[in-house]
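The passage that follows is intended for readers who have already worked through the single-chain material. We present the inputs for a multi-component assembly, then the predicted structure in tokenized form, and finally a short commentary. You are encouraged to pause after the input and sketch how you expect the pieces to fit together before reading on.
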Amino acid sequence: MFKYLTLFYLLFQNAPEVYKTTNGFVRFQSTTQSEKINAKSGALRAVIDPDSRKFAFAIKLNSFHGFNSQLQEEHYNENYVESRQFPEANFKGRIIESIDFNQSGIYNVRAKGDFYVHGVTNHITVPAEIKIKNLKEISIKCILNINLKDYGIKIPKVVHMKLAEIIQIQVNATLLKSTTQIE
Amino acid sequence: MSPFVSDGKILDEKLNIHILYTDHQNHIWAGTDQGLYLWQKGQLVKMNTDETLQIRSISRLGEYLLIGTKQGVLYSFFLQDNSIKKLVDLHVEISDLFICQPDKIAIATKGKGIFMVSTQAIIHFNLSNGLNDNFIYHLVCDRQQVLWSCSDNGINRITNNNIFSFQGNDQLPDPVTSAIGISENEIFIGTQQGDLITYHLSTHNLKTYPNITQKKAQINDILVLDHTVFLATDSGLLQLSKLNPDEKLWENEKATYSISVDLEANIWYGGDELLGINNGEQLQIIPRLGNQPLSFVHTLKILGSDLWFTPDQGLIRYNIKTKKLDQITLTPESELIDITALYRDHEGFVWAGTSGRGLYRIDTSSFSAQQISIHPSTGSSHILSISGTDRELQVSGLDGIWVAPIQNHEYPFESLEDRYHLKKFYVYQICRDRLGQTWMATDGQGILRINDNGVESFSKQKNIETKVFYSICEDGKGQIWFNAMNDGVYCNIQDSLVHLNAENGLQSNDILSISPLGKSYFLAVSSKGIDLIHTADFNVAHYNFENLGILKLPELNSITVSEEEIAYIGTNHGIISLHLPSYKKQFSPSIQLDGLSAMNVPKNPNQNTFPFDSNYLEFRFSCNSFTPDIIYYRYRLEGLNDKWVQTSNQEVIFPRLEPGKYTLTLQSANNRSFNHPSSFDYSFTIAYPFWRTWWFIACISLISFSIIYFIFRMRVNQAGKWQRLEKEKAIAEFEALKIQVNPHFLFNSFNTLIHVIEMDQQKAIEYTQKLSDFYRSLLSYKDKDLVLLQEEMNLLKNYLFLQKMRFEHCLQLDIQISDEVAHTFSIPPLTLQLLAENAIKHNVINAAHPLTIYIFIQDQYIHIRNNINIKLTQEKGERIGLLNIKNRYALVTDKKLYIENDHVTFTVKLPLLNH
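Having made your guess, compare it with the prediction:
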């Protein structure tokens, strides 16, 4: 019996251990003189492989809510991010600094990779904070500023007082260790 | 602090400049997010391509520009017609293009590694074959043509065989190396977090300067020069000392992505809505040394690695390498003392001459000064210049020149004027040349030279009128230079004298200081700026203070040059240092033809033949020189006018050019006399209109000559014809005359008459009447050319009646010509008569052989036929008669007459002639 258990454990030892979540929190904010938009989503899927330091974050764009009006949410989906054509936004890449995931603490690192939204991919480097709580749990906090122009999201002149060129995205996620493969 | 900074204001449009590139013709290209731009005539001009390219890398290959974009597409841009062609799509940003050898292109990408493309093969370097990372930022090449790359995970050195790398967290503070620069034997690496690392290629020594940007700003580009290193970072442009990167020389605070150096050693830098130019390492203003601020610096000298200079008072020794400052006071009290001359003798003592307190000798090891007296007279306390040999010291002061042999540290001075029996005079500067001669620049006596032959006035020998000279020195080639008050500089090369002044190259005639710079150059400093003179060909490059924003005034004889060939010039507000960069390739503006149009239609300069009606030509030209300097232009069109025309417009128009061959020569120079100009020739031809071409004119001439010739001939012929007509008429007259007096005919007629008288009186009367009629008509016909056939018939009938009387029935006639025909047509007179006479003359007529003459009309011809009975004895004159008829016919008609003789009958056919 124990022999099988050890085998079982050995199997698990060889399987890659990653940290993941499917309900990370993302907020994006647009601040202008006339209007402030603050949309949130709790449907961020995130995965980090501590060995290769690779990460992948993905979110469905239509999972954002908290717009100032139903009409605004509709416009956001139909005209701006065009979520029907481009349902997902993702950020895939590598963490530059090597950190010891076994050592708890707060680390300021850089996440460098391809950020994809609205059909356009740009290579960006984002400062992030990884807090290692214990062997099983880590939390990520990062703020990225994206320029809508870089992703082909056009702001009509009528609206440009209400929507900012640069949107601030905040990510706050807690990832738990699990032993399934990275997608 | 570097002067000549032109920042931001030179950019009209809002451009995001990501790459600046200087090609081998000194064209400055800017690759931006808004497309490709070229610096032309003081601004960036857009090169129109159909789509807007977001350019990240540029490199020139022959007549093409290779462009790499953010989207990963490689384009080739053809410079002659500005056409663009897509070459390949790599789908990841092409971050750098490097042409390491003429047949090898290295393409660096952000995501797919490096591609090396040559005519033989394409080699792909990536993670799988040794490259640290596929995300490459930049490529550089070292002296051995080996490629180095910097990437997200350290740097790589790439040769064909292997890839050397160092990377990672153990050797570099930040593995993301975003910039790389290379000097002779050192590599400079910049990271994303603002660290600078230097790696020495021979010693393999690695040195890190963390956080050099102080704001963790990413270093985007590194440019390594002779003495300094420029870093283009996200928080601005930094200039650091190359030997000591901790030392920050200058800074500009706008995000800069790219730096490039042009052929004139100017630095160009660009970023978001930023484009700047500055003169880089060449001129620097040094306002302070160490903690010593500088104001008036009028005496300075570099001795070894120390810069000795005089600030307001005292004497300072500053070590350039260690930056240590020592101050020495020469007077025990804090009296203001003015040091006017500095000299180091062969024993190592430094001599300082003062104005008012005489001469001091300074011991450099103990750094103590001792006053040395020259002569009891007070005049010798004011010193102007100090020089010397290994055996003697020469000091010039207000009371003349004093020399002393150096022996046992005693200096017994004696007056030079006394030795050579000269008057006392001022010497501003003394200099000793490599041949051992002593030269003196004097006030009032010109240039004096002292050698083994004694003292002579050199300036008098060379017929130079100026008597006041401020400085004199020898250059790297042994040539002696001296500058005069308001007269520029002179250079003595063996026997000839070269004179440079404001007309032929210098910025001013009022030169304050001169000095050689290295072996090949010479500097002349005036209040307008510094002139850099090439000692071989005397080509002059300008550094103009006003254009560079330098407001300082240089002092008299205040220049010194270090062993590293940096010149230090003392001014009224600090020191200016001039360094001639090793990478400066262009010294004077180089002219180029920008465009050419004929009849206001732009043309390709390759075209050099224009049709005759395309003769309004406009040429536009400019210089690819960005150093602020006054540029003079002139042109000459050979074929129109062989004179040079000066212009300040950058275009020349020729409104109405006659057909012919021309050569346009354009010249640019930085001086009014056009010494050492840059030239450009363009030969072209205005074609002759076809009516002026040689072949057309030749044809026309040939045709007209032929026409004239033929007309002439025709007239000659006609004249000839008239002549012949007259001649034939004369002959006919003659014949007629002959007939008139033909004795045979008369004799026969009289014989017949006698016979007839005997026979018939009535017939005899008729016969005589007919005879006289015949002779009368003969008379009237002789003047006519043509007579009616009827008239000729009458004559003939008369004649034949007479003959018939003689021959009776032996002569038969058969005349069948209708009256109508006889009245319509004409015939030359006496034709038929002559033919009939011929027939009677040449044939036997008797009963046995009767003669029948037939005359009838057939086919528009009169036929006269007779049967032949040849007489054996011929009477003379027949040939002439027939020929005469032939000729007379020829003169009045083209129709031929025919003679047929078949020995049975003899027929003559005469054409019928119209009246």
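Commentary: Chain A touches chain B at residues 96-98, 110, 112, 123, 125 (CB under 8 Å). The longest strand of chain A covers residues 18-31. How closely did your sketch match?
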